[in-house]
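== Folding task for one protein ==

=== Format: two labelled lines per protein ===

==== Paired sequence and structure tokens ====
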Amino acid sequence: MDYMIGIDLGTTSTKAVLFDDQNQVVAQANYGYPLYRDTTDMAEEDLDEIFVAFTNALGAVVRKAELGKGNAIKAVSFSSAMHSLIAFDKDWHPLTRVITWADTRAVNYTEELKSTGLGMEIYQKTGTPIHPMAPLSKLLWLKNDQPDIYKNAAHYLGIKEYLFHRLFGANKMDISIASGTGLFNIFELDWDKQALEVTGVTKDQLPETVSPYEYETGMNKELAAVLGLPEDVPFVYGAGDGPLSNLGVDAVQPGVAAITIGTSGAIRVVSDKPVIDPKGRTFTYALDKDHWVVGGPVNNGGDVFRWAKDNLFDAEKSTAALLGQDAYDLMTEIASKIPAGSDGLLFHPYLGGERAPIWDANARGSFFGLNHSHTRANMLRAVLEGITFNVYMVSLALEEVVGSLKSIQATGGFARSPLWRQMFADIFEQPVTVPQAFESGALAAVVVAQKALGQIDDLYEISKYIGKSNTYQPEPENFEAYRELAPIFIRLSRQLQTEYDNIAAFQRKHARPAEKK
């Protein structure tokens, strides 16, 4: 049997999925690592912890393949979280941990760049909104706040590029990941001169950009032995997790949107050319040079649901454990008892600042409309609805750029929750389809590998492997509540923006020592 492995490098875990020659899942392994928030606005990962998680996950599924019994691994391919940054010195010693997309310490330099108009000029060439998530802003922060690191940095990579460097000694970045750095000109397919001038970084400090179909062979012998893989197995670069999520749920036709809610979230559609929003609200990232994903990312997805579980329902979490029940299932069961609209309680989910639709790293979360009748169950449903309303706001901006959305394909952890799926259908007033293939990112990475090795000619062949789908139809009895509340949610998010800077400044000034690990 010939196998392929899809690797999904996420914000808090790495997953490896073993696929057979019919692209069916045979085995999977998932290993987590912490996201360090030692100080306000920090969000970093440890390089060694990521590498251990990666080797554990990959090694686990390789063992399931039982190589040497007529079985072979034909390729390993990657879907990766975007916007990460790691600085190395000239001898490739790391100078930083992984500074992730969720890190917002560059907020001041981001706002300065946006205020001059230069930010919009750069956005119009790179397709990456000016925000602390992007390596562009992170480099400005290093330059101003970490001058010793900036001065000694000879190389900059992201999380996936670090793994390839450690495995193969390579110094390359696929154009999909590059297109999310804020440093890459998506029309010229090269590092942007103006963005480099702003950061003071040279092309020599950045990786060579390559196609997502590029691959490496000749792995480090010791690491190959640890993984149980032959040294000549191709490792395909693959692409960013956002673009591959669209491919993985077959949301590649015009007007077909993919909504993903994992730790964070996004809504995206595929275009055959780069598309720029005149208002700078949406991103444009490459899947490859012929397919571009246009959309908006949100910082606050499943992590907000986790916050609610951990802080509002601690006792219920313990009860679920005693009963052998999944805590999230119990939470959604509790929320389902509350009617649509949470009895007039709204929640703005901006616990980690926000990217789309407001692009404000200083944004903060809030409940609005609380009264004596509201319970924790109301609060929980309002949290789920708030995340959904926020993605709906992004969709309104996206439609201004790419036109009306015809249908929605859902993926990510939320797609496993019937309540949440129905909530999206009701708020968007559109059918929401959930493909059977939950491991959409890893599947898409494998299809990229098949194209890289010449096994298929067209990425659209993925439609053969998506499997059966479940479609959730909107329930008209819920329309009235959501139609009334959505405009309030949107207006309120704009009105609160006038005070986000002030409350964020207060929080930074008065951060308690207990919050610093």
